[in-house]
Amino acid sequence: MISEFLKTAVVATALMITLTSCGNRVRLMNNSTEADAVGIEMSAEGSYVEREGYKNKEPQAEEQCIEKEITTEEETEPATEPPTIDIHYTDYALPESCIIDDFRTVMQNPELPTGCEITALTQTLNFLGFDIDKVTMCDKYMSTDYEGKYTMNQCYIGDPKSVTGFGCSAPVICKSAKRYFRVEKSECYAENLTGTDFQELFYQIDQGRPVIVWATMYLMDTKPEYVYTAKNGEEMWFCTYQHCLTLYGYDLKQRIVYLADPLVGNTTYPLDRFEDIYDILGKQAVVICGDAENGLDAEQKPVTRSEETAEITTSEKTETTSAITTDNK
Q: In sequence order, what are the beta bridge partners of 269?
């Protein structure tokens, strides 16, 4: 995610910070008393949002705007609670290695150069038998914000079809999946597992459920040190090189994890390194419950396991990860 999208300023000596995510740049500054940069609009709270590259954006179709509009009201829920699956980790002897069979990556380029999150959701839906493409998921089901009104917990910030996109967090992907399932009249649903220790996600893999996770491109170093105040008054912390992938396997003996990376394809990364980055990005994770054919009555997807079992361990972390927050709903 990326861009020359957001700028906030600092009084007299405005220090420019260049952020990078998904191969592009985001420029942020602290608040200032005057907007002297070209293409900058002042928000109600005094922050500045760079609109260059967005001012000529074609308006969305009315029905899409209605579907995607972000409000403070909760969506109307059914009178009775919908059925759910118990997916939560308990003490469990995990196999030493486990890989979900036949998971295939959907590449985000060229159509969505900064749309790794919706692409990660799409490849996960495809694996579960849903016939949907990444561009349709992006256009029809993901809320976008071109004006700096919201944070990444509420919308995708920017344009995922350009190099000026910024990104979104787990709640936006859950909302996109919810909208898709509602249109498809499917009882499947997305579960936000944000806050789950990384190696506890391996239980989901052993149960045949791939996990959408947030890390960085190629596991590059990052930390949550830049903050932006949206027009709605909420703060958004940003990590450089932010990226979204789907976890579909692990090997505790080799200390590797198997990822469907929308920038790379099916690949492996060092387990401990990936866990470190996952923690820094706020331990964001999403799973999809059910599949296209049988809904919540779906059988477990085939996995390849080792015969040995192993206990998962979570190493002590020294990084501060509390700055990145997501609504765990």
A: 257
CB-CB neighbours of 237 under 10 Å: 17
C-alpha 227/C-alpha 158 separation (Å) is 16
**Residues 138/112, Cβ–Cβ less than 8 Å:** yes
Q: Quick one: tokens of 135?
A: 């561009």
pTM of the model: 0.77
Interacting residues of 58 by C-beta distance below 8 A, sequence separation 6+: none
Over residues 44-71, the mean pLDDT reads 36
Round to whole Å and give the CA distance between 298 and 233.
Answer: 42
3-class secondary structure, 16: coil
C-alpha dist (Å) from residue 13 to 10, 48, 105, 137: 6, 16, 45, 42
Model confidence pLDDT, tens digit, residues 94-122: 999 999 999 999 999 999 999 999 999 99
CB 209 within 8 A of CB 220: no
pLDDT level of residue 85 (50, 70, 90 thresholds): confident
181 located within any domain: yes
Residue with tokens 């998971």: 103
Three state DSSP letters for 294-317? CECCCCCCCEEECCCEECCCCCCC
For position 241, which CATH number holds? 3.90.70.10
Condensed to tens digits (0 to 9), the pLDDT of residues 218-233 reads 999 998 878 889 999 9
Is residue 54 within 8 A of residue 166, CB to CB? The reply is no
For residue 260, the enclosing domain spans: 58-68+87-310
Across-strand partners of 189?
Answer: 289
Looking at residue 22, its pLDDT comes to 63
- In a domain, residue 315? The reply is no
Distance from the first to the final alpha carbon of the chain: 23
* CA-based nearest residue to 153, from 73, 84, 212, 235: 235
Q: How many domains does the chain have?
A: 1
